[in-house]
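To assess whether ligand presence alters the predicted conformation, the chain was also submitted together with zinc ion. Input:
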Amino acid sequence: MLAYDAMEIELKEIHEFPAQLKLFERPQDLQFEIDGVRFVNGVTIELSIQKTDHEYFVNGRCLAEVQMICARCLESATLKLSGDLSVIAQIDEPRRPGRAGKSGKRERSEQFEDSEELVQLDQSERLVLVEPVRQALFAEVPRKPLCREDCQGLCQKCGVNLNSKTCDCHKGVSDSRWEGLGDLLEKNGRA
Ligand SMILES: [Zn+2]
Ligand SMILES: [Zn+2]
């Protein structure tokens, strides 16, 4: 397995297919940001690359450990993101005279699907993965991140973090005035 340290692949330099590649990008070198997400250890990208006459098929997985704010207790939550990436990179073929008659028409790959991104390479055949990687990870960012599945959240009354403390707020008769707020915070059912 070859290792690269930038989110860019020189496809021309690969001579054996299918090729397995592993790339690693440090947090400080990441060329993108996702709102509300802090990358802890960078992003690992595992790729499998196949080549036909006209295209490279780049499939892989992006792995990242991130920190987000837990939607229930508002503490920092560490989460693992794992997103799939799929790019078809079309090779730039200069039109040479006398060649058009043979296979002038470029057929669009039958494997092409909506989820795949189509990229037109230039002569250098350098594939930049910044945007595909960002999209793959962005798709995996939870809308409601939780520090853990059974996070108890904050007490709706006194605000203590119920993961680490208990309070006496719910021992008596429940206060109906707070139920509306509970719905709002989607914390009902755990009161
Ligand atoms: Zn939490
Ligand atoms: Zn309380």
